[in-house]
Amino acid sequence: MKRVVWRCFIDYEREEGWLNKMSAQGLALTDYSWCRYVFAETTPHKYIYRMELLDNLATDPESSAYIRFLEENGIEHVASFQRWIYVRRESSQGDFDIYTDLESKLKHYKRVSALWNSLMVMEFSLGLINIAIALLIGAGLTTAFSFFHVNLIVGLVCTALGFGFLRLIEPINRKVKELEREREIRE
Amino acid sequence: MSENSQRSALTEAVFYILLSLYSPLHGYGIMQNIKELSNGRVNLGPGTLYGAINTLLEKNWIELQDSDFRKKTYRITQLGKTVIQDELLRLEELLANGNRIAGRESK
What we know:
Chain A is α+β, with helices and mostly antiparallel strands. Chain A has helices at residues 12-24, 61-72, 102-138, 148-183, and strands at 2-6, 27-33, 36-41, 47-53, 76-81, 84-90. In chain A, 52% of the residues lie in helices and 20% in strands.
């Protein structure tokens, strides 16, 4: 049986946690795109799900080589979305983490942090530009476009998203710092 | 960066990957072998393994042996074996000093 669930996450660790909770209930993710999750019914706890942010788009040859490697090694590639991939392994094969040492974990967190950073900068700039335009129109300085409300709403939404990413970056950066300190005395 | 790179410690993952490849293995085999060797303590993640394999191939410490049945198998090179021998010397020194100063016999 197929089941479709619409849901939007911006925190991938919460998303991953949710997918594993669904899997524990016997709903195994089989496809994802744009907030649309497709699940198939299976025995509960059959799979462990992981999400990974790649260096390149999932369709890039370098990513394909990596995905092929995963599949050769008993890991199923379930879905990709831009630079994200969703993978799973049967839980009967034991614990499943993609990265298991400090160095590679650190690299992944830094990649995620860089993505949030660039999205945050983009949202803040779009937000400020739109608010500025709205203010200019409001002050009667320009009448070239009279989309005052549109600019204001877009501006506020973008700014709010910017703050959303800012909040996401904080815990990730804390983890990066922790791992870096740990790396000074361990591998 | 230190010139004498053969003297610095290998990561646990690299050490066990190199050991696993004294006989040719594919990625999954390496992960299973390491789990067995370490009595389940080291559960190497595929992302970590992939990065390490690529670096080791570049350094010529391991080589591609075969890629039939769409599964690539790798094996250690002569250079890789030298690296392991050097690491064993280093580890023996650590172990000897550790046992002498903080060893179980002296409590």
